[in-house]
Amino acid sequence: MKMNRWFALVFVAVMVFASGAFAQGPPPYGAPISLDVAKKITGAAIAEAKKNNWGMVVVVTDGGGSLIFLERLDGTHNASVDVAIMKARSSAAYRNSTKVFADLLAQGGLGNRFLVLPGAMPVGGGLPIVIDGKLVGAIGVSGGTMAQDEQVAAAGMNALK
């Protein structure tokens, strides 16, 4: 039984990385994101959420998934705090957008096999933060629809441009 689980885990990991999600390979890890940069990203994301009257939680983690900064708008679901953290941690751990997992899940079949990967979050709203070609952290957003969470996360990332 354990051998089958191990095989499944390895198979899924290979499938995810070979799926085209990492066509150019994942970015290498860099030095952790600074608090100032985390606040800049979060501020831009929160501004987008406020502009649209969406209750959101925005978190930024370092490349290892440890929390650097969190902001929660009034009235946002309590559960959104944990979901946003999980999205950022998933994005940091797998060095990719959490939407990749959502897209794989939507495909069904072999796409469902990633569900055995620890911490893989199959909901959009988690994005890796890559600076100078290196992963330094991740943003996680929760509180709206998947499209809204993605839009707010993208707005946060645009603050780096």
What would your notes on this structure say?
The protein is of the alpha+beta class and 161 residues long. The chain has helices at residues 2-18, 35-51, 79-94, 98-107, 146-158, and strands at 57-62, 67-72, 126-131, 134-142. It has a single domain (2-18, 28-158), classed as Haem-degrading domain (Beta-Lactamase). The chain is globular, with a radius of gyration of 16 Å.
Number of domains: 1
End-to-end separation in angstroms reads 49 Å
Number of strands: 4
Assign the CATH architecture: 2-Layer Sandwich
Helix/strand-derived category reads alpha+beta
Quote the average pLDDT. 88
Instruction: State the shape.
Output: globular
Q: What does the oligomeric state look like here? A: single chain
What is the CA-atom radius of gyration, in angstroms? 16 Å
Q: Number of helix segments?
A: 5
Largest sheet: 4 strands, antiparallel
Uncertain runs:
6-22
Name of the level-1 CATH class = Alpha Beta
CATH superfamily label: Haem-degrading domain
CATH topology: Beta-Lactamase
- SSE string, helices as H and strands as E: HHEEHHEEH
Strand order of the largest sheet: 2-1-4-3
How much of the sequence lies in strands comes to 15-25%
Give the helix proportion (percent range). 40-55%
